[in-house]
Amino acid sequence: MLQTLNLARNQLEGGLPSGVFTNMSALVEINLRSNNLSGELPSDICSNAPKLKRLLLSENKIVGKIPKSICKCREMEDLRISSNKLTGNIPTEIGNLTKLTYLSMFSNHLEGEIPSSVFNISSLEFVYLGDNILTRSVPIFNSLTRLQILYLDSNLIGGIPKEIGYLTSLQHLKLNNNKLTGYIPKQIGNLTMLRTLYIDSNNLTGYIPNQIGDLSSLQGLDLSSNKLAGNISSSIFNVSSLEFIYLGDNNLSGSLPANLDNLLNLQVLSVKSNNIIGAFYNL
């Protein structure tokens, strides 16, 4: 019986009618990404394909709400419905997908709060929810110790919780282009596997925490376009893996740290539009 249906990257049009996967009960993967599919998601996908592990529908023109019934696919490991025209809330029942490792819903028109149930799925490794209309603050994610990528850009308001320090497997974090306020928590220094950190284009205040210097794997740091103040911590310039640093458009002051020459891999350093002082020949 058919287990994998892969029609990705074609010119398929029209909707997915109810019953379209009838008599395909052995399906493990449905891949229809990068087509011109429209209409709403059928509510009977899981009842007709109970063994489904991968549902890949990104880069289409699918509209409407995410049906709660999609959360009955208890074997689901990979759910990608990004870059469509989906609206409404993320169903709280998504927490029932306890085997989910990859969740991608970015670039839709989803709104409301991110259900706390999402962040109780301890198997999650990749979460892409950016570029929607999601509101409220960054969720608390104590259970996501396997999470490697978290993209929540272009959505949220509120602050960055100190519990972010529990995400000790995180490698890439994007919280940019939100309306985040408050301080960058010092617990960010617990994310020692982090490679890229984007918190630019927010309303964050206070100092850059010294603990960023503990991110020994960091390659890219972008804290630009906030309201950060104080001196630039010299601890940042002890992270020898850094390739780019963007700190421009803040209220930073003082001189650049003397240990700038530690960054042998650095390709871009931007501290424009601050209050940096000192002689140019000391750089």
TrEMBL record:
This is Disease resistance R13L4/SHOC-2-like LRR domain-containing protein. It is a single-pass type I membrane protein. It holds the Pfam family LRR_1. InterPro entries: Leu-rich_rpt, Leu-rich_rpt_typical-subtyp, LRR_dom_sf, LRR_R13L4/SHOC2-like. One of its GO terms (cellular component) is membrane. It is found in: Membrane. It comes from Salvia splendens. Keywords: Glycoprotein, Leucine-rich repeat, Membrane, Receptor, Repeat, Signal, Transmembrane, Transmembrane helix.
